[in-house]
From TrEMBL:
Protein known as: L-xylulose reductase
The protein's assembly and partners: Homotetramer.
InterPro entries: L-xylulose/Carbonyl_redctase (IPR051737), NAD(P)-bd_dom_sf (IPR036291), Sc_DH/Rdtase_CS (IPR020904), SDR_fam (IPR002347)
Sequence similarity: Belongs to the short-chain dehydrogenases/reductases (SDR) family.
Keyword NADP appears in the UniProt entry: yes
The UniProt record lists the keyword Nucleotide-binding: no
Key words, A-Z: NADP, Oxidoreductase
Cited PROSITE patterns: ADH_SHORT
A single MF term (Gene Ontology): L-xylulose reductase (NADPH) activity
Length: 273
Protein backbone atom coordinates (compact mmCIF):
# COMPACT_ATOMS: atom_id res chain seq x y z
CA UNK A 1 0.00 0.00 0.00
CA UNK A 2 2.78 2.41 0.94
CA UNK A 3 4.56 1.63 -2.32
CA UNK A 4 1.37 2.50 -4.23
CA UNK A 5 0.95 5.78 -2.36
CA UNK A 6 4.60 6.65 -2.93
CA UNK A 7 4.29 5.80 -6.64
CA UNK A 8 1.16 7.96 -6.95
CA UNK A 9 2.90 10.85 -5.14
CA UNK A 10 5.90 10.59 -7.50
CA UNK A 11 3.62 10.58 -10.55
CA UNK A 12 1.77 13.66 -9.30
CA UNK A 13 5.04 15.46 -8.58
CA UNK A 14 6.37 14.62 -12.03
CA UNK A 15 3.19 15.90 -13.63
CA UNK A 16 3.44 19.12 -11.62
CA UNK A 17 7.08 19.65 -12.59
CA UNK A 18 6.39 18.91 -16.26
CA UNK A 19 3.37 21.17 -16.24
CA UNK A 20 5.39 24.00 -14.72
CA UNK A 21 8.20 23.50 -17.24
CA UNK A 22 5.72 23.36 -20.11
CA UNK A 23 4.13 26.62 -19.05
CA UNK A 24 7.57 28.21 -18.73
CA UNK A 25 8.60 27.05 -22.19
CA UNK A 26 5.33 28.23 -23.72
CA UNK A 27 5.32 31.59 -21.92
CA UNK A 28 5.38 34.50 -24.32
CA UNK A 29 7.58 37.40 -23.36
CA UNK A 30 7.88 40.83 -24.83
CA UNK A 31 11.23 41.76 -26.32
CA UNK A 32 13.81 43.42 -24.12
CA UNK A 33 13.45 46.59 -26.17
CA UNK A 34 9.71 46.81 -25.47
CA UNK A 35 10.39 46.96 -21.74
CA UNK A 36 11.90 50.44 -22.07
CA UNK A 37 9.07 52.12 -23.97
CA UNK A 38 7.67 55.06 -21.99
CA UNK A 39 9.78 54.31 -18.91
CA UNK A 40 12.18 56.84 -17.37
CA UNK A 41 15.90 56.51 -16.67
CA UNK A 42 18.73 58.68 -15.38
CA UNK A 43 22.19 58.42 -16.91
CA UNK A 44 25.00 60.33 -15.20
CA UNK A 45 28.12 61.28 -17.08
CA UNK A 46 26.04 61.48 -20.26
CA UNK A 47 28.16 64.19 -21.87
CA UNK A 48 30.54 61.83 -23.65
CA UNK A 49 31.81 58.30 -24.08
CA UNK A 50 29.87 55.41 -22.58
CA UNK A 51 27.27 57.65 -20.94
CA UNK A 52 26.36 59.34 -24.21
CA UNK A 53 26.04 55.97 -25.96
CA UNK A 54 23.92 54.49 -23.15
CA UNK A 55 21.61 57.52 -23.18
CA UNK A 56 21.28 57.30 -26.95
CA UNK A 57 20.42 53.62 -26.85
CA UNK A 58 17.70 54.21 -24.26
CA UNK A 59 16.25 57.08 -26.26
CA UNK A 60 16.17 54.88 -29.36
CA UNK A 61 13.93 52.47 -27.44
CA UNK A 62 11.47 55.28 -26.70
CA UNK A 63 12.46 55.74 -23.07
CA UNK A 64 12.53 59.10 -21.33
CA UNK A 65 16.13 59.88 -20.39
CA UNK A 66 17.43 62.38 -17.88
CA UNK A 67 20.92 63.02 -19.24
CA UNK A 68 23.09 64.31 -16.41
CA UNK A 69 26.43 66.06 -16.79
CA UNK A 70 28.53 69.02 -15.68
CA UNK A 71 28.35 70.83 -19.04
CA UNK A 72 24.86 71.12 -20.45
CA UNK A 73 26.18 72.04 -23.91
CA UNK A 74 28.00 68.68 -24.15
CA UNK A 75 24.94 66.60 -23.29
CA UNK A 76 23.05 64.78 -26.06
CA UNK A 77 20.78 66.98 -28.15
CA UNK A 78 18.32 64.92 -30.16
CA UNK A 79 15.13 66.76 -31.23
CA UNK A 80 11.87 64.85 -31.02
CA UNK A 81 13.02 62.36 -28.39
CA UNK A 82 12.15 62.19 -24.69
CA UNK A 83 15.29 63.85 -23.40
CA UNK A 84 15.78 66.08 -20.37
CA UNK A 85 19.23 67.60 -19.93
CA UNK A 86 20.30 68.32 -16.36
CA UNK A 87 23.47 69.96 -15.10
CA UNK A 88 24.74 68.28 -11.93
CA UNK A 89 28.19 68.09 -10.38
CA UNK A 90 28.09 64.50 -9.13
CA UNK A 91 31.01 65.27 -6.83
CA UNK A 92 28.88 67.74 -4.84
CA UNK A 93 27.10 65.96 -1.97
CA UNK A 94 24.13 68.26 -1.48
CA UNK A 95 23.31 69.39 -5.01
CA UNK A 96 23.56 65.84 -6.40
CA UNK A 97 20.91 64.62 -3.99
CA UNK A 98 18.54 67.58 -4.33
CA UNK A 99 18.67 67.83 -8.13
CA UNK A 100 18.22 64.10 -8.72
CA UNK A 101 15.41 63.94 -6.18
CA UNK A 102 13.64 66.74 -8.11
CA UNK A 103 13.58 64.56 -11.24
CA UNK A 104 10.94 62.38 -9.59
CA UNK A 105 10.44 58.62 -9.82
CA UNK A 106 12.33 56.74 -12.53
CA UNK A 107 12.64 53.07 -13.40
CA UNK A 108 16.41 52.95 -13.52
CA UNK A 109 19.64 54.78 -12.81
CA UNK A 110 23.01 54.37 -14.52
CA UNK A 111 25.82 55.71 -12.34
CA UNK A 112 28.30 56.27 -15.14
CA UNK A 113 29.91 59.61 -14.19
CA UNK A 114 33.59 59.13 -13.53
CA UNK A 115 37.01 60.72 -13.60
CA UNK A 116 40.55 59.36 -13.65
CA UNK A 117 43.63 61.20 -12.41
CA UNK A 118 46.67 59.38 -13.77
CA UNK A 119 49.22 59.75 -11.00
CA UNK A 120 51.95 57.40 -9.71
CA UNK A 121 51.38 56.21 -6.17
CA UNK A 122 54.29 58.22 -4.74
CA UNK A 123 53.04 61.40 -6.45
CA UNK A 124 49.31 61.05 -5.82
CA UNK A 125 47.87 64.45 -4.96
CA UNK A 126 45.12 65.32 -2.51
CA UNK A 127 43.20 67.01 -5.32
CA UNK A 128 43.44 63.93 -7.55
CA UNK A 129 42.46 61.61 -4.71
CA UNK A 130 39.53 63.70 -3.47
CA UNK A 131 38.13 64.43 -6.93
CA UNK A 132 38.27 60.76 -7.95
CA UNK A 133 36.68 59.39 -4.78
CA UNK A 134 34.06 62.16 -4.63
CA UNK A 135 32.80 61.52 -8.16
CA UNK A 136 33.45 57.82 -8.71
CA UNK A 137 32.38 56.53 -5.29
CA UNK A 138 30.63 59.10 -3.14
CA UNK A 139 28.62 60.35 -6.11
CA UNK A 140 27.26 56.82 -6.66
CA UNK A 141 25.98 56.75 -3.09
CA UNK A 142 24.37 60.17 -3.21
CA UNK A 143 22.69 59.80 -6.60
CA UNK A 144 21.43 56.34 -5.67
CA UNK A 145 19.99 57.56 -2.36
CA UNK A 146 17.84 60.12 -4.18
CA UNK A 147 16.71 57.67 -6.87
CA UNK A 148 15.95 54.93 -4.34
CA UNK A 149 13.90 57.32 -2.21
CA UNK A 150 11.73 58.20 -5.21
CA UNK A 151 11.43 54.56 -6.29
CA UNK A 152 10.32 53.50 -2.82
CA UNK A 153 7.75 56.30 -2.57
CA UNK A 154 6.33 55.39 -6.00
CA UNK A 155 6.53 51.62 -5.32
CA UNK A 156 8.68 51.05 -8.39
CA UNK A 157 10.67 47.84 -8.69
CA UNK A 158 13.64 49.53 -10.26
CA UNK A 159 17.21 48.81 -11.27
CA UNK A 160 20.42 50.69 -10.49
CA UNK A 161 23.51 49.96 -12.57
CA UNK A 162 26.89 51.20 -11.40
CA UNK A 163 29.82 51.40 -13.78
CA UNK A 164 32.82 49.86 -12.05
CA UNK A 165 35.94 48.43 -13.71
CA UNK A 166 38.11 45.35 -13.91
CA UNK A 167 40.83 47.36 -12.17
CA UNK A 168 38.63 47.45 -9.11
CA UNK A 169 40.24 44.04 -8.57
CA UNK A 170 43.31 44.00 -10.85
CA UNK A 171 45.52 46.99 -10.07
CA UNK A 172 47.55 48.76 -12.73
CA UNK A 173 50.29 51.40 -12.28
CA UNK A 174 49.51 55.11 -11.93
CA UNK A 175 45.86 54.57 -11.02
CA UNK A 176 45.82 54.28 -7.22
CA UNK A 177 42.89 56.69 -6.74
CA UNK A 178 40.91 55.19 -9.62
CA UNK A 179 41.51 51.61 -8.47
CA UNK A 180 40.47 52.56 -4.94
CA UNK A 181 37.34 54.34 -6.15
CA UNK A 182 36.16 51.40 -8.25
CA UNK A 183 36.96 48.91 -5.49
CA UNK A 184 34.69 51.03 -3.32
CA UNK A 185 31.98 50.91 -5.99
CA UNK A 186 32.03 47.09 -5.87
CA UNK A 187 31.30 47.12 -2.14
CA UNK A 188 28.79 49.96 -2.40
CA UNK A 189 26.89 47.89 -4.98
CA UNK A 190 26.86 44.79 -2.79
CA UNK A 191 25.62 46.78 0.20
CA UNK A 192 22.92 48.44 -1.87
CA UNK A 193 21.83 45.04 -3.18
CA UNK A 194 21.45 43.72 0.37
CA UNK A 195 19.60 46.75 1.71
CA UNK A 196 17.51 47.79 -1.30
CA UNK A 197 16.72 44.30 -2.63
CA UNK A 198 13.93 43.70 -0.07
CA UNK A 199 12.38 46.98 -1.27
CA UNK A 200 12.24 45.76 -4.86
CA UNK A 201 15.31 47.64 -6.12
CA UNK A 202 18.12 45.69 -7.78
CA UNK A 203 21.70 46.98 -7.89
CA UNK A 204 24.46 45.59 -10.10
CA UNK A 205 27.84 46.55 -11.52
CA UNK A 206 29.13 46.55 -15.06
CA UNK A 207 32.92 46.06 -14.92
CA UNK A 208 34.56 46.89 -18.25
CA UNK A 209 38.10 46.40 -19.37
CA UNK A 210 39.65 49.26 -21.37
CA UNK A 211 36.88 50.98 -23.35
CA UNK A 212 37.78 52.67 -26.62
CA UNK A 213 35.93 55.93 -26.22
CA UNK A 214 37.60 59.01 -27.70
CA UNK A 215 39.48 59.48 -24.44
CA UNK A 216 40.23 55.76 -24.22
CA UNK A 217 41.79 55.77 -27.67
CA UNK A 218 44.12 58.56 -26.61
CA UNK A 219 44.94 57.10 -23.19
CA UNK A 220 45.71 53.60 -24.52
CA UNK A 221 47.30 54.41 -27.88
CA UNK A 222 50.81 53.60 -26.63
CA UNK A 223 51.49 49.87 -27.30
CA UNK A 224 53.86 49.71 -24.32
CA UNK A 225 50.92 50.58 -22.09
CA UNK A 226 48.15 48.67 -23.85
CA UNK A 227 49.84 45.41 -24.91
CA UNK A 228 50.31 43.91 -21.40
CA UNK A 229 46.54 44.18 -20.85
CA UNK A 230 45.62 43.14 -24.38
CA UNK A 231 47.69 39.96 -24.03
CA UNK A 232 45.50 38.92 -21.09
CA UNK A 233 42.22 39.31 -23.03
CA UNK A 234 41.34 36.01 -24.75
CA UNK A 235 39.08 37.74 -27.28
CA UNK A 236 42.03 39.88 -28.32
CA UNK A 237 40.42 43.31 -28.26
CA UNK A 238 39.38 46.14 -25.97
CA UNK A 239 35.71 47.00 -25.42
CA UNK A 240 33.67 49.43 -27.50
CA UNK A 241 31.10 51.75 -25.85
CA UNK A 242 28.24 49.70 -27.31
CA UNK A 243 29.59 46.57 -25.58
CA UNK A 244 29.08 48.36 -22.28
CA UNK A 245 25.69 49.72 -23.31
CA UNK A 246 24.50 46.18 -24.13
CA UNK A 247 25.33 45.00 -20.61
CA UNK A 248 23.76 48.05 -18.98
CA UNK A 249 20.53 47.68 -20.94
CA UNK A 250 20.30 44.01 -19.97
CA UNK A 251 20.71 44.83 -16.27
CA UNK A 252 18.17 47.67 -16.44
CA UNK A 253 15.58 45.45 -18.11
CA UNK A 254 13.25 42.85 -16.63
CA UNK A 255 15.28 40.19 -18.44
CA UNK A 256 17.62 40.41 -15.44
CA UNK A 257 14.99 40.61 -12.71
CA UNK A 258 16.61 37.84 -10.61
CA UNK A 259 20.10 39.36 -10.82
CA UNK A 260 21.14 41.47 -7.85
CA UNK A 261 24.50 42.43 -6.36
CA UNK A 262 26.72 41.03 -9.11
CA UNK A 263 29.72 42.20 -11.13
CA UNK A 264 29.12 41.74 -14.85
CA UNK A 265 32.56 41.71 -16.45
CA UNK A 266 32.61 43.09 -19.98
CA UNK A 267 36.25 42.27 -20.50
CA UNK A 268 36.68 39.63 -23.22
CA UNK A 269 37.83 37.18 -20.54
CA UNK A 270 40.47 39.41 -18.90
CA UNK A 271 39.41 38.39 -15.39
CA UNK A 272 39.63 34.68 -16.11
CA UNK A 273 43.42 34.60 -16.39
Amino acid sequence: MFRSINKLSTQLNNRYVMGTLSRGIAEKRSSMEEYFKDKSFIVTGASAGMGKVIAGRLLAMDAHVFAVGRDIDSLPSIPGLKLTKVTVDIGDWDSTYSKILEMGPVHGLVNNAGVAHIEPFMKTTQQGWDDTLNINSRGVVRASQAVAENMIAAKINGSIVNISSTISERAIPDHVAYCASKGAVNQITRTMAVELGPLGIRTNNVNPTVVLTKMGLIAWSDPKKSEPIMKRIPLGRFAQPNDIADAVIFLLSDYSKMINGMNLYVDGGFMTG
